Amino acid sequence: MPAVSVRFIPELPTETDIAVLDSGCVKVVNYAGVVADTPNRRDAGRLVDSFVEPLFQYGVPDRYGSRPARSDIVRTEAWRRFGVEVTAIPIDEWRIGPIWEEWLLTWQQIVEAIASGEEPLPPVVEVTLPSR
Question: What is the Cβ-side half-sphere exposure of residue 99, based on CA atoms within 13 angstroms?
Answer without folding.
Answer: 11
